[in-house]
Every structure is written in structure tokens, then in C-alpha cells.
Amino acid sequence: MKDVTQMTLAGHMRGLLRLGLPLIGGHLAQFAIGLTDAIMLGWYGVSELAALTLANGYFFTFFLVGSGFAWAVMPLVASFAAEDDQIMIRRATRMALWLSILFFLAALPLMLISDPVLRALGQSPDLAALAQSYLRIAGWGLLPALGVMTLKSYLAGLERTRVILAITVLAALANAALNYVLIFGHFGAPELGIAGAAIASLATHTLSLAGVVIYARWALPQHDLFGRFWRADTEMLARVFRLGWPIGLTSLSEVGLFVMAALMVGWLGTVPLAAHGIALQCASATFLVHLGLANAATVRTGSAFGRGDRDALARGGLAAALLSVGIASVTIVVFLTMPELLLTAFLNRGDADYAAILAIGVQLLALAAVFQLVDGGQVVALGLLRGVQDTRVPMILAAVAYWGIGLPVSYGLGFGLDWGAAGVWAGLVSGLATASVLLAARFVSRLRSGTGVSVAG
Fold first, then answer.
1. Which DSSP string do the residues of 378-390 spell out, in sequence order?
2. What are the angstrom distances between the C-alpha of 10 and each of 142, 277, 292, 353?
């Protein structure tokens, strides 16, 4: 305990990297599942890529909201582990799994009837129909995906992050192989196009869940997560719900901003939407590096919170912020100096729209470079606040930033000033910058007031 309390800033940075690098790798491997879909469907056809952009945005809206209960597990388990309370670890994880199942049952009907929803949001009938054909299959994967997220958060809270990386890498490889076979019809399989990508994603989520369940039962039998799983624990269910629903709505605020951006770009046509989808894939990859760092910050902050260690909270927060700035600096250089190299990985050079997509994509990647600092800043600040179990006020701050600032600025620049897709993305920058400032200020305020080391309200 003494070593942790007296740890230097450099020591906190090393601790964050030791815990965070496997989490970053796991997030990137998970991202590779969607990336593989996008690359292979980009080779298959521009319409399929545009439809996948809509479908993925729709799916991940529900996934991230439902993941609020999974994210709640991470600081709870870290805090209980610091107190060596094995029973509470089991109770929190089990009830998060319950809440994930209930959320899936509520969300599934909206996956199966996504076509009219997307058309009501202004998308063309052809793209909406293609997106629904994907979601009617991939939507069933929401259940295993939420289960995997919950159990990964449980393992991360216990600082068992390497196994998360191993399982996710294997899943990504399996998804790539299945995509190759099912999208294009190789090795005697039927050519299924976008439906093949959906089947591959569903199978991958299911295999991932099987892997993480097997590991949890084998490596941590003392927690007995699935013994008498049907027995309700209303007290802990309510606690996880109270902590998790603001996290889910915070994620909804952010992902909703990006989904609305995709919808607005979709109003401009298939070519801008395809360019948007490619640029967003690139920006999402770098965001996931910050997200892995934020997860590590949540775990270490949650542990310090459980110990009541204010010094570790302050130094750990500064260490996370400095690492995020360093990561952002590297990605800014990459996006500004080699945009064509990144974009062409998703395109067939023989496609008639190749040059038009590339031209728009270069503009969007330049804007993505601009928001690297603020995007990383806001997600790390959220991670720190979740570590001290502060989720309700951050939810409000995020909603104001994303929807009160980001969305109207996107619409005003994209359509009012006729800047097109670049204007929509400039609005994203404004929303993320506002969130970064507000959330960082909230964490600093908690530390100065002393409430960062007491139970959050």
C-alpha cells in the first residue's frame, strides 16, 4: 500500500501502460471485426459499404447504451478487489449480466424492424433495406456482445487484461476468415455479400462469449459467477443499475452525435456517406487507443477510490492525461501526412466513385486529426470520473456538449453554410472539445473538494 501511495508520476504512467496496453490491443482487435467487414464490403461494392455504415451505427447505438451496465462493473470490481471482498465482486458481475440480458430483450425488436426506422430518419429505401438485411442477422449478436463486454470489464477490474487481448485477437482472426468465405463465396460457400458479413459477426461474438466464460470458470472458480445464476439479487441489481444507466446514456449522447452525423452525411448521397464511413473507421481506431487508456484509468482510479487514496487519484489522473496527449500527437501526424494510404485500403481502384470518395475522405481525415486531442481528453476524463463512481453529472455535461453544441453546429456548418460532409465533421470537433473541457473540469473539481475519495452521489 505504501508503494502505491508514494508512487511517482512516472510510476503511475508505467502502471497505466502495463494495465492499459492489453486493453488497447483488445479494443483494437474488437474494432478489427468491424474494420474487416468494412474493408471487404468496400471491395464488394460501394452500396454495401454505405449500408454497413448505417447498420453499424444503428447496432452500436444499442450496444453502447447496453454496455453502460458492463462499464459499471469495472470500477465496482476494482473497488471491491481493493477491499478483498470476493462476494461483492460476484454479486456485481452477475447482476450486470442480468441487466445486459434484459436490455437485449428490449432492443432486439428494433434490430429486426430497422428498415422503417432508417427510412423515417431520411435514408434511401435501398440503403435502409440493405442495412436491415444485415441487422436482422447481426442484431442477435447483441446478446453475446454485451455478455462479452460485461465479463471483460469484470476481468479488467481484477487487472487480468492479457487474456482479454488473447481472446479478442482470436475472435478477430476468426471473423476475417468467415468474412472472406461468406461475403465472396470462397471454398464452395455461397456468395452472401452483406448477409455473409452479418453471419460472420454473429458467429464471432458467440465464440468470444464462449471463450471468456470458459476462462472465467477455469481461472476464477472462487467467484462462481454462473452458479444459481437465476437467483435475483435486487440490492446489487439496483446498485449496478444506478451506476450503469448514466454511463449508457452518456455513451448514447456521444454515439448518437456520430450516428446523426452519419445520417446527415447520408442526406448528401452515397459517395459522401462511403467517405464518411471510411474516415470514421480510421478515427475510431485511434479513439480505441484512448478508450483502452481510459479503461485502465478507471480500474486504477477505482482501486484508489476503494482505498481512499487522494494522492493516487490526482497523480494517476495527470498521468492518464499526459499519455492521452502523447498518443494524440502521433495520430495527428499520421492523419495529416498519409491520408491517401489509409483511405485506399478500403477502396477498389477500379470503382467509378474512387476519386470522389478519396477527395472527400482526405478532408474528413484532416478534421479527424484536429479532434484527436479533444476526443482522447473527453474519454479519459470520463474514465477517471467512472473510477470514482461519478456518472450522473458527467452524463448531463456530455449531453450538453454533444447535443447542445456538437449537433447544431454540425447541421449549421454542413447545410446552413453548405460545407457538406466537412462541415458536419467540424461540428463534431466542437462538441468533443466542449465535452473535454467540461469533464476534465469536473474531475479536478471532485479532487479539490475532496469528494473524489468519498462515495459519489
1. HHHHHHHHHHTT-
2. 39, 38, 19, 49
Q: Which three cell numbers stand for residue 376?
A: 482522447
Which residues, 6+ apart, have CB-to-CB distance to 229 below 8 Å?
94, 97
Cβ-contact 180, 199 below 8 angstroms = no
pLDDT tens digits along 382-410: 989 988 889 899 999 999 999 999 999 99
CA distance 148 to 145: 5
Closest among 193, 197, 206 to 179, alpha carbons compared = 197
CA distance 54 to 118: 8
Cell of 159: 487487472
Residue type at 233 in one-letter notation: D
Distance CA 454, CA 236 (A): 19
Are 216 and 151 in contact by the 8 Å Cβ rule? The answer is: yes
User: Would you state the cell numbers that stand for residue 205, as one nine-digit string?
Assistant: 461474438
For residues 158 and 216, the answer to whether their CB atoms sit within 8 Å is no
pTM of the predicted structure, to 2 decimals = 0.79
- Domain count within the chain: 1
- Among residues 34, 22, 27, 23, the alpha carbon closest in space to that of 175 is found at 34
Contact 247, 383 (CB under 8 A): no
Q: What is the DSSP-derived secondary structure letter of residue 185? A: T
- Beta carbons within 10 angstroms of residue 117's beta carbon: 16
Q: What is the pLDDT of residues 213-232, one digit of tens each?
A: 999 999 888 888 887 888 88
Residue 118's pLDDT band (cuts 50, 70, 90) = confident
Give the whole-angstrom CA distance, residue 69 versus residue 102: 11
Which residues form the domain of 281?
Answer: 2-453
Could you tell me which residues come within 8 angstroms of residue 338 by beta carbon, excluding any fewer than 6 positions away?
none
CA 416 vs. chain centroid, Å, equals 31
- Distance, in Å, from the CA atom of 26 to the CA atom of 268, rounded to the nearest integer, reads 35
Helical residues (DSSP H) of 158-193, grouped into ranges: 162-184
Which set of grid coordinates corresponds to residue 220?
Answer: 476464477
HEC-encoded secondary structure of 342-378: HHHCCCCCCCCCHHHHHHHHHHHHHHHHHCHHHHHHH
